[in-house]
Every structure is written in C-alpha cells, then in structure tokens.
C-alpha cells in the first residue's frame, strides 16, 4: 500500500492567474502597488497570512497581514467567478487521477495551503471528491513546510511516512515531505523551477503527469 498526497495549486490546477489577481487587488486595497506575478508565484503553497507577510518582507504575521488575509478571502469568490479567472486542471491530470484511483493498493489525498472551502470546491468541480480519501488544508495544520499535513494524513489512514509520496510544485512541498520522512516528487509544470525543487530535496522530477506513474506504481 502507498499513500499519494497531492498539492493542489500549481500541481493539480493552474490557478496562478486567479491567485495573483486576488492578491494584487488586496494589496491595492491596502494602499500598496500591485505586486509582480513572480512575487505571487514564490509564495503559492504557504498559508495565506504567512504568504502575505512574506510578500511584504515581514518576518512575522502582523495585524495588517491578518486584515489583508480577511480581505483576500472576502473577495476571492467574486473574482473566481469572473469569466477569465478559471482554474483548469493541467493537461493529463484528469486521466492520471482516474488511473491512480482505480488501483486498490493506492490511497489518494491532498495537502494544500488552500482553505478547506477552496479545496472542497476544486475537488467537487473536477469530480475528484470520491477519489481523495484524506486531506489537510490551511484550516487544519501549520503552514508548509511544517510536516503536520503529511503526518496527520498518515495517521488518519494508518500509513507510514516511508510508504507515502508527496507530489507538488513548490519548494515548500519538497521540504514538507522530507521533514515528514516521505518521498518528495516535484512537478515541472508548476510555479517553481526544477533547480529549486531539487535544491529543496526532491527525490525525482516529473515533467508530465504521466511521468508520475513510474514513480508511484
């Protein structure tokens, strides 16, 4: 048996345009210039309040970062519903998940810096809900790269971290996996570079969703 834990943003779905637009509108609402998309990409995967504080160059979450987090969450649904703000699955993800879900020896889960509501929406829209039997979000655990998301999923499913594979596009995913004692597989179609993923501890790199099969099965 293996437990396969997927990150969401940048791994399953291409959501950078939406996340960046909500982040940019939040910064403008608080009197800041629109951040560059590269700044947004660098924090995707972190819990939102920590992400905002880091984009501002703050060492800790302060009252302003908390207020900006609340604003971000309040406008997110309306921005998501705009016609040009969709978050499509990356090519090949649908068939990959369906292939893995059909294997009795595999358990699938999600570990994400999204909110519980956000993850639930993504899984439901893409008809993935029955496939993901365990998940941890920003509402449940400390931010990545803390290992709690992985270790709690292991505890819930009765799996050992050594039999667990974490798949993600961010350095925080790789760091989280290694801290938990799990295998870390980076994906090249997300928001961090291959070099950054390897430096963060990736055991392997997948350049297309189909490449993951050889690392899992």
Automatic annotation (TrEMBL):
Question: What cellular component terms from Gene Ontology apply here?
Answer: cytosol
- Fetch the InterPro entries from UniProt: HAD-like_hydrolase_sf, HAD-like_sf, HAD-SF_hydro_IA, HAD_2, HAD_sf, PGP-like_dom2
Molecular function via GO: phosphoglycolate phosphatase activity
- Naturally occurring in which organism (per UniProt): Rhizobium hainanense
**Identification of the protein by name:** Phosphoglycolate phosphatase
Q: What SUPFAM superfamilies does this protein map onto? A: HAD-like
* BP terms from Gene Ontology: DNA repair
The record ties this protein, via NCBIfam families, to: HAD-SF-IA-v1
